[in-house]
Design a protein that fits this description.
The chain contains nine helices and 16 strands. By secondary structure, it is of the alpha/beta class. The protein has two domains: 5-180 and 299-384, Zn peptidases (Aminopeptidase); 183-296, Alpha-Beta Plaits.
């Protein structure tokens, strides 16, 4: 597998080889959210080889603190560790050994990157203290909040992280001011009708008909209630109703996702869906209630930390390989929970495999150029040791 390791020369070749071994070990034995026990043990063993002693946090997370020359605000670096409930079809020699579970989003690479950053930071002058932490349950959500509740941000002044992205060439670092990930809300619409025999529909209220009308009408929210320059997504992914072919369903349940780049648009999406669902259901003689099952805010990079992230990126790959995000990214990321409390920045690591077909994250064929691990490790170490003055 080709790499662009030469773009991160600060990482010794021996260390790079150990990170590849670590990534592949994590990839072979993926674990779902809140089940990352073996993952944590594997990462902890790699850290102990560096002379570090990680401490557990939030059951399956890990934290390492490195002292600085002076006391001051801690610079925090984060990686995520959980896999997805997807059956791998990559054909890789180190493919998942666990049917139905796969690292299909690069968290195995993120975990290895941060171990690489730890190796580099152990050999570098650190003016301020640095905290490295490996977070469980990013995919399911709740991991970031759990770590915050257990004090991972105590004393932290800045927080940084990033995500592998095969949509960009290996060697590019994508650094953008402002919003870089959308807010992500999982919604449920419960539609109540009245069961009746299908031969006598006038005696009931068809919850399926009302719910189908809600799905169709809801598409007008983004198309007609938001401006063309306001990125947003409203998608229903499941529709469950009925238990007999000859009976009108008395209840239908829709589940979907609402995504937005700004808090104002996010609020308008929620309000519009609640209003529209209730109105459309009422027009069919039914009722509808919208529930929010989970909610993750948008990832918004602060200007100062983004300038630090950009300087570090230039130091690692050169100015010509540091690019802005070309358009809205509607994916969610619970790194947002940290940024709601502490200034920071979240970037993307280009990781396209040369000559390989593009496979998106959360697909059974997802893979990335492992050379991105060296670049990510170098960037994480650089961002923790950058001059923190204005950009």
């Amino acid at each position: 597998m080709p790499h662009l390791f030469e773009t991160a020369p600060s990482l010794p070749a021996e260390t790079f080889d150990r990170l590849i071994h670590l990534r592949r070990a994590l990839h072979r034995y993926p674990e779902l959210a809140w089940q990352e026990q073996r993952t944590a043990v594997t990462i902890a063993a790699s850290l102990r080889e560096l002379g570090l002693e990680p401490r557990p946090i939030a059951e399956t997370g890990l934290v390492v603190d490195l002292p600085g020359e002076v006391e001051g605000p801690i610079i925090a670096l984060r990686a995520d560790t959980d896999a997805l409930p997807i059956h791998e079809q990559t054909g890789l020699p180190f493919a998942s050994s666990r049917p139905g579970i796969m690292h299909a989003c690069g968290h195995d690479g993120h975990s290895a990157m941060l171990v690489g950053a730890a190796a580099l930071l152990c050999t570098r002058r650190r003016r301020l203290p640095v905290r490295l932490f490996w977070q469980p349950a990013e995919e399911l959500g709740g991991g970031a909040e759990a770590l915050i509740a257990e004090g991972v941000l105590d004393g932290v002044g800045l927080v940084f992280g990033g995500h592998i992205d095969p949509a960009f060439p290996t060697g590019e670092l994508i650094v953008t001011d402002g919003t870089v990930n959308a807010s992500t809300d999982t919604l449920r619409v419960v539609v109540k009708g009245q069961r009746a025999h299908a031969a006598r529909p006038q005696q009931g209220v068809d919850a399926i008909l009302a719910a189908a009308a809600i799905v169709t009408a809801a598409q007008s929210i983004v198309a007609r209630e938001l401006g063309p320059g306001e990125p947003a997504v409203l998608t229903f992914g499941t529709f469950h109703a009925g238990d007999a072919a000859n009976v009108l369903a008395g209840e239908a349940v829709l589940e979907g996702t609402a995504r937005a780049y700004s808090p104002a648009v996010r609020a308008r999406l929620h309000a519009a869906l609640a209003r529209l669902a209730a109105g459309v259901a009422a027009a069919h003689g039914a009722s509808a209630v919208v529930e929010v099952l989970s909610a993750t805010p948008a990832v918004i990079n602060a200007p100062g930390p983004t300038a630090i992230a950009r300087r570090a990126a230039i130091a690692v790959v050169g100015a010509e390989r540091v690019k802005p995000l070309p358009g809205p990214n509607m994916g969610g990321e619970d790194f947002a929970a940290y940024l709601e409390r502490v200034p920071g920045a979240f970037i993307r690591f280009g990781a396209a495999r040369a000559g390989a077909a593009f496979s998106p994250a959360h697909s059974s064929h997802f893979d990335f150029d492992e050379g991105a691990i060296a670049i990510g490790a170098a960037w994480l170490a650089a961002v923790a040791t950058q001059d923190l003055g204005p950009g």
